[in-house]
């Protein structure tokens, strides 16, 4: 049927058409922004972490006896715990630290090049107590200088991540041997994602000191053969309690789990919005379906007349479909505009990247596809109208 | 009565005649309402005023204290021991309390060998319980703010440790110390926990054990949410002295100021405090005092859950889409019965009678949509709390909320039904019958 | 023009079978003006619908313009209907949301005529039925007689070979009915075959040929004998 006739028949049903358009517009706006958010969450959670997420276990724990909370008892306890853990088959390396990568919270401090506090100060850099084995436990990569050794114990030697070294000295290669407020840089390691909401998620600073107190708990890091990870995981708590009964094992996680938790909010929102978008598509489909169905019934007479005048079934099918397409097309144009408006509103609330044009356009195509699928069946029912029956005098 | 049932029967018969389109309409309506209800619930609790009669009198004072001049006009979220002392010297507030959250291990002294129970602690002062209307079941609060080995238990932890609630006078071991229990609270939860929003714990669980703030310093119990030190003291040693004297920040402080005059007076008092500190050379940063009312605390500490804000906006849009959709469907449905409407009017039914018929329709759809939407809402809530676990405490419904939901369902059904019905029944008669 | 041999039509519902047409044989020459009469329920409309390919039949043969109709696809039937057949219904069956012009244009669009040609044909048809001035009206704004004239204009705009009319004056008063009858005769005189169902004996008498149907069986009152084989078929293949 010609566009003008279609338009005429749409304008005959202004209210229904407007209702449909509003709904299509909103659906499209939501759909494209959900995809945008999901995409953003996806790329956020796919940033490199510098960590071996699937073969690293982290154990967060607390001594429950105040006498074990401070040195020297604490140091002895940690050593006994690590030795016991290393004996579990499948455990390759075991080390301790005061804070787990990827977990929020921990000990943070200002870091600046000695005598250049004003120009180089970086606030809230994660400070990590580290022993020689942490390097292997976290499967770190050395970039410059060296990692901390036993000789560095209780000295002022520090190791920086590459991003931190670059930020402080312009080039990470210049860092080794330099003096910063916390000590002398002896090495630079590849970036590790420490605290997502720190000044930079790749900042971290390591020094070989004894943990002075366990009042905030501490963390044991295990590098485990991948195949053994579940088995080791089940054993850890018992092994630790055998070492010392006054131990509260708070949680045992793979870094993969922690990583998921770090991006949980974004992931959750993305999934929720996607579910909602799917529901919106479903609603749009139901609407297109029942609209076409009702319409077919309403227009039995009209379709019968058209058949009598020589319209074949394909043409009727196409007519019903093209009416859907036309409304969806209009809805798509409005929807693309609405997508940008909604993006603006959302960007005021959360950080949201700009909307690339292909996204609402792609969403329109998807919507068109769904509407077509939903309209097909009622449209094909409409073609089955018996012209003799439909044109009968009442 | 007989007339009403007649109308209802007619409405039901209309549904029976074309059940599929009718239930699609209801389905869409319920989806929209359900998603909206589940979000509105979260939104309601997030923005709930847990102390409506006094929240306007509760304030969170901050001074821009610090060890170093760094030009920042953004006061720390937490106060040092000294700051709290300074801010407490005034008698202007009708109540005032410092506090912070911590954690520890408690056990019954008789069960020394058994492994201890992890507990949430709140180190605070006696006015905490008046500031936030905390109800006591047994015993009472401390007589003053001095250090003492006396604790107050929540009802749940009294039951957990002793199997009963009246345990005033019993002792409980916390760390290495024995504490005497002087009070047990009744069930109590502030939702959201506005006094802790500053630490990002507005939706967390309430404490199990309350101990005196001064005692916490004596026993080297520190905050487990946020601490900050700005000097080179070793806070792992001799905390009773270092923690009190050094630049060690960990507490929050609340005051109750009942009248605008009191508020103005307290603001002035804060200025004087800062002035004399500056004169003594102890306030190097620019003066930037803040006195934040409880109702603004979430904004002030940027603690709103943005994700939920977004989802709330989006679910509202979804509701609108569903309303449009449902009214579109119901318009179709009514148009299909337009002929019958026309015929009935031609047979002498008055507009009023048709209107009653429509209202009966609205009632029936509202009821069905309401029931369905509650189911959808329950499912959606489950999904949301699984995906965003921080919302777990914000999902309960009370009678008023359910009543409001029922009202919304009624309004929605009315909106969805009325225009189409009017179109169908009051359109030009001659055109329909022709 | 039309040849049907031993055509039968049975309507089957869950409860009963209705033999609407039994073993019909009929031949209609090009240019005929035939009236189809019979008591109510005798099968007149059914026959007309089958002739117009709106309805299928159960057995027998039907040749339209020499071409066998049985076994044609829906698309081919639709084309046949569009090009060769014009319909006029008792209840006019105009599309009420379309203007007069759009209503007449519809079959011409299906035919694939361009806008210019469509316009020309519509104007011719409207002139014939005397409704040029009303082309932008909606059907609801016209009287019954005018609506039927529009329906006639729509039926003939495509210059069909045969016009099928099912009680075209059934809903009209006698004056209007006469106008419509005159129009149909005029169209017949221009060479179009007309087959009309009617209850009115006067109208039936006006027709050159009078076919009666009783209980699904034909009583032809004219002298034409059906050809055993249609012309086209002896020539073709
Ligand atoms: N779709 C159908 N299903 C079942 N039976 C039908 C159907 N259409 C017609 N019939 C039956 O076929 C017979 C012929 O009907 P038809 O409509 O051809 O009669 P008619 O001669 O046109 O009658 P009238 O003068 O009242 O219009 C009738 O008995 C009718 O009941
Ligand atoms: Mg008939």
Helix-strand blueprint:
The complex is a heterotrimer of chains A (394), B (434) and C (237).
Chain A: H1 3-12, H2 14-45, E1 56-63, H3 73-86, E2 91-97, E3 108-111, H4 117-120, E4 122-129, H5 134-137, E5 142-145, E6 157-161, H6 162-169, E7 179-180, E8 183-189, E9 205-207, E10 218-224, H7 229-243, E11 247-254, H8 255-262, H9 264-298, H10 300-308, H11 313-349, H12 358-383, H13 387-390
Parallel strand pairs in A: 4-9, 6-8
Antiparallel strand pairs in A: 1-10, 1-11, 2-10, 3-4, 5-8, 6-9, 7-8
Helix pairs in contact in A: 1-11, 2-9, 2-11, 2-12, 3-7, 9-10, 9-12, 11-12
Chain B: H1 2-17, H2 19-46, E1 58-62, E2 79-80, H3 81-88, E3 95-107, E4 117-124, H4 128-131, E5 136-139, E6 150-153, H5 155-162, E7 171-174, E8 177-185, E9 209-212, H6 213-218, E10 228-229, H7 239-245, E11 248-256, H8 260-279, E12 290-293, H9 297-300, H10 306-336, H11 338-346, H12 351-387, H13 399-426, H14 429-433
Parallel strand pairs in B: 4-9, 6-8
Antiparallel strand pairs in B: 1-11, 1-12, 2-11, 3-4, 3-7, 3-11, 5-8, 6-9, 7-8, 10-11
Helix pairs in contact in B: 1-12, 2-10, 2-12, 2-13, 10-13, 12-13
Chain C: E1 2-12, E2 17-28, E3 33-37, H1 44-51, E4 59-64, E5 67-68, H2 74-84, E6 85-88, H3 100-111, H4 115-129, H5 144-157, E7 162-166, H6 174-189, E8 193-197, H7 201-206, E9 209-214, E10 217-220, H8 231-235
Parallel strand pairs in C: 3-8, 3-9, 6-7, 7-8
Antiparallel strand pairs in C: 1-2, 1-4, 4-5, 9-10
The structure holds adenosine-5'-triphosphate and magnesium ion (MG).
């Amino acid at each position: 049927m010609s566009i003008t006739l279609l338009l005429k028949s749409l304008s005959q049903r202004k209210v229904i058409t407007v209702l449909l358009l509003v709904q299509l517009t909103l659906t499209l706006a939501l759909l494209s922004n959900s995809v945008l958010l999901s995409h953003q969450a996806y790329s956020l959670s796919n940033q490199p972490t510098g960590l071996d997420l699937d073969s690293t276990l982290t154990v967060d724990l607390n001594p429950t006896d105040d006498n074990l909370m401070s040195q020297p008892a604490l140091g002895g306890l940690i050593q006994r715990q690590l030795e016991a853990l290393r004996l579990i088959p499948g455990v390759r390396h075991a080390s301790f630290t005061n804070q787990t990568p990827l977990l929020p919270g921990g000990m943070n401090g200002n870091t600046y090049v000695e005598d250049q506090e004003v120009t180089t100060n970086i606030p809230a850099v994660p400070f990590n107590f580290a022993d020689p084995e942490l390097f292997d436990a976290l499967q770190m990569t050395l970039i410059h200088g060296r990692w901390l050794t036993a000789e560095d114990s209780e000295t002022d030697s520090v190791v920086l991540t590459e991003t931190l070294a670059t930020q402080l000295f312009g080039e990470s290669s210049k860092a080794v041997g330099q003096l910063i407020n916390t000590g002398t840089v002896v090495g630079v390691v590849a970036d590790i994602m420490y605290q997502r909401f720190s000044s930079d998620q790749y900042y971290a600073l390591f020094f070989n000191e004894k943990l002075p107190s366990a009042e905030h708990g501490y963390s044991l890091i295990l590098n485990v053969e991948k195949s053994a990870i579940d088995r080791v995981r089940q054993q850890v708590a018992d092994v630790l309690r055998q070492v010392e009964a006054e131990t509260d094992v708070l949680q045992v996680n793979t870094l993969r789990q922690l990583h998921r938790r770090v991006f949980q909010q974004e992931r959750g929102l993305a999934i929720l919005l996607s579910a909602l978008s799917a529901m919106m598509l479903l609603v749009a489909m139901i609407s297109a379906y029942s609209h076409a169905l009702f319409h077919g019934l309403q227009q039995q007479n009209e379709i019968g007349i058209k058949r009598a005048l020589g319209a074949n079934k394909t043409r009727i099918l196409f007519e019903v479909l093209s009416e859907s397409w036309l409304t969806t097309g209009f809805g798509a144009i409005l929807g693309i505009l609405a997508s940008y408006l909604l993006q603006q509103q959302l960007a005021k609330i959360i950080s949201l990247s700009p909307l690339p044009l292909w996204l609402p356009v792609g969403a329109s195509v998807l919507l068109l596809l769904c509407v077509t699928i939903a309209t097909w069946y009622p449209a094909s029912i409409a073609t089955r109208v018996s012209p003799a029956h439909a044109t009968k005098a009442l | 009565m007989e007339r009403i049932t007649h109308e209802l029967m007619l409405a039901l018969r209309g549904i029976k005649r074309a059940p599929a389109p009718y239930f699609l309409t209801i389905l869409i309506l319920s989806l929209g309402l359900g998603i909206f209800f589940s979000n509105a619930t979260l939104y309601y609790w997030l923005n709930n005023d847990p102390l409506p009669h006094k929240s306007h009198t509760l304030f969170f004072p901050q001074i821009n204290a610090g060890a170093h001049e760094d030009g920042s006009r953004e006061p720390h979220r937490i106060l040092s021991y000294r700051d709290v002392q300074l801010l407490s010297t005034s008698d202007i507030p009708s109540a005032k309390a410092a506090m912070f959250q911590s954690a520890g291990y408690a056990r019954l002294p008789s069960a020394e060998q058994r492994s201890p129970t992890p507990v949430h602690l709140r180190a605070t002062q006696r006015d905490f319980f008046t500031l936030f209307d905390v109800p006591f079941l047994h015993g009472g609060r401390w007589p003053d703010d001095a250090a003492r080995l006396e604790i107050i238990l929540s009802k749940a932890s009294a039951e957990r440790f002793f199997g009963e609630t009246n345990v005033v006078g019993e002792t409980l071991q916390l760390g290495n110390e024995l504490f005497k229990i002087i009070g047990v609270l009744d069930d109590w939860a502030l939702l959201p926990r506005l006094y802790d929003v500053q630490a990002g714990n507005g939706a967390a669980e309430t404490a199990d054990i309350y101990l005196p703030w001064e005692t916490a310093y004596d026993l080297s119990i520190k905050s487990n949410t946020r601490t900050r030190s700005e000097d080179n003291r070793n806070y792992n040693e001799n905390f009773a002295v270092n923690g009190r004297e050094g630049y060690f920040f960990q507490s929050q402080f609340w005051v109750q100021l009942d009248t605008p005059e009191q508020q103005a007076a307290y603001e002035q008092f804060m200025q004087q405090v800062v002035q004399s500190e500056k004169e003594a050379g102890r306030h190097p940063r620019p003066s930037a005092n803040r006195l934040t009312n409880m109702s603004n605390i979430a904004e002030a500490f940027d603690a709103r859950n943005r994700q939920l804000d977004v989802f709330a906006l989006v679910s509202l849009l979804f509701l609108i889409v569903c309303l449009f959709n449902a009214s579109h469907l119901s318009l179709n449905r009514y148009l299909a019965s337009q002929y019958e409407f026309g015929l009935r009017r031609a047979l002498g039914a008055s507009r009023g009678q048709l209107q009653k018929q429509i209202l009966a329709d609205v009632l029936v759809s509202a009821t069905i949509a309401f029931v369905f939407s509650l189911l959808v809402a329950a499912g959606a809530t489950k999904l949301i709390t699984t995906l965003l676990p921080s919302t777990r405490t914000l999902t309960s419904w009370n009678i008023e909320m359910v009543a409001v939901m029922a009202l919304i369902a009624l309004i929605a059904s009315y909106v969805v039904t009325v225009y189409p019905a009017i179109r169908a029944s009051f359109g030009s008669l001659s055109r329909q019958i022709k | 023009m039309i040849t049907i041999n031993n055509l039968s039509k049975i309507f089957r519902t869950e409860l009963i079978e209705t033999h609407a047409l039994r073993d019909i044989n009929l031949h209609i020459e090009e240019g005929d003006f035939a009236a189809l009469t019979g008591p109510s329920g005798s099968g007149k409309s059914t026959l007309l619908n089958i002739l117009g390919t709106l309805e299928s039949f159960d057995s027998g043969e039907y040749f339209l313009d020499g071409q066998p109709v049985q076994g044609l696809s829906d698309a081919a039937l639709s084309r046949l209907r569009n090009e060769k057949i014009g319909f006029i219904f008792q209840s006019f069956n105009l599309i009420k949301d379309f203007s007069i012009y759009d209503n007449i244009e519809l079959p011409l669009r299906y035919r694939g005529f361009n806008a210019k040609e469509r316009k020309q044909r519509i104007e011719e048809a409207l002139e014939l039925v005397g409704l040029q001035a009303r082309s932008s009206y909606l059907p609801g704004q016209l009287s019954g007689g005018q609506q039927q004239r529009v329906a006639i204009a729509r039926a003939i705009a495509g210059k069909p070979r045969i016009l099928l009319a099912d009680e075209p004056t059934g809903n009209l008063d006698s004056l209007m009915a006469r106008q419509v009858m005159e129009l149909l005769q005029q169209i017949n005189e221009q060479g179009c075959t007309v087959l009309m169902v009617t209850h009115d004996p006067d109208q039936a008498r006006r027709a050159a040929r009078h076919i009666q149907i009783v209980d699904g069986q034909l009583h032809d009152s004219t002298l034409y004998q059906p050809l055993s084989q249609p012309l086209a078929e002896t020539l073709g293949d």
